[in-house]
Amino acid sequence: MKKNESIACEVTECKHHSGQENYCALDKIQVTKHSGSATTVEQTDCGSFSKKI
Questions:
Q1: Residue 36 forms part of a structural domain
Q2: Is 37 inside a domain boundary?
């Protein structure tokens, strides 16, 4: 899978992980938040995550 060097990613369980190196293979990702106003990293997530089968 082709890596996107603009998106680093360590989540190897995601189907979009490049496989060879710690990068995402998507052209872009969607970052989401868990509350109306995110103030910590724990309140955000990669909304593009999809579990690897």
A1: no
A2: no
